[in-house]
Amino acid sequence: MNGDGPVFKKSRWGTNRYVYNADNPVGLALVVISTALGLVVLLLMENRVGPFAPTPEPTWHPPTSYVDVRPYEPLPQDPYGTTPTP
């Protein structure tokens, strides 16, 4: 390992991108840290914990007062009186 090299170096793939230089100790630390962080995020997603946890569904609870509940009132059998009586 040569600590004199740059932390980032140009990619050899022909693009104008920079990549971590694993020959530099700081670049190697960045490689290890970013890989570990990526694995932790993937595990959190897989197990659906942390920021990837689903929101809990609200639980049902009975009404707290009778104001919220309307009594059941059945409709009359013949509300308009159109059925002839026998």
UniProtKB/TrEMBL annotation:
Superkingdom of the source species: Bacteria
Keywords from the UniProt entry: Membrane, Transmembrane, Transmembrane helix
Transmembrane residue ranges: 26-45
Spans annotated as Disordered: 53-86
Protein name: Energy transducer TonB
Organism: Streptomyces bikiniensis
